[in-house]
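I keep forgetting this: the sequence line spells out the residues, with the fold written below as integer tokens. I include a record here:
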Amino acid sequence: MWEYTEKTKDHFLNPRNVGVINDPDGIGEVGSLACGDALKLTFKLDEQRKQIADAKFQTFGCASAIASSSALTEMLKGLTLEEAAKITNEDIADYLGGLPKEKMHCSVMGRDALEKAITYYRGGSEKKIEGEIVCECFGVTDLEIKRAVTENGLKTVEEVTDYVKAGGGCGKCHENIQAIIDQQIGGIQILPRMKKKELTNIQKIKLIEETLTREIQPALAKDGGDIELIDVDGDKVTVKLRGTCATCSKSQITLKNYVETKLRELVSDSLEVQEVN
């Protein structure tokens, strides 16, 4: 579904420095399996404690997460801690020749893991969560959103989701995210998302059918998959996956993280998608 550069493909298919360094000088862990992305970064300094001699990673995530982590470990070798601390998520993406905007959160995850690893080496305690949780689905705070907006010039809720995942779940935090964006970029007027009005069952079914046809089926078709609407009972949407999606080991992730999220975004945030038995 995503357009990757040749360098990104290479780092995904042939990742460098996979594993964990024994007795590391720095350890940084970010993300969680519940959110779909997790990264552990370790590094070792040379004998003079001047430069990073080695760096390794373990990650659970998509192709971009693997490629970003691999790239970061390659970037770190030979750098002093002061130089390493200046690496940004944009530097990681640029090293790979760019990442799809929907996958920029993978480079942010790498940057965050590096910051934690350096803090670990310097003897600092891991920072407690600061600010207020805005996105309950992914545990993202207002300060994390503000940082992403400021550093990357983000202007929409969708862009914030691409960088830090906030807003990528149930969608209830979209108005709060938009308010943070407006505040950070100096009050530039961006229209907030309209609240969805109550739909009749016929209207709901029609919108679901349109969303499947216009948004979801074309995306699945890129990987040889398809989806068929079977039934709508209140907020329960029953579908059947076809093509490669029907036999894919990650079909349930596709249903929940993509199909259900898209239907909640464009139809009703109370919808639940299930596959026909």
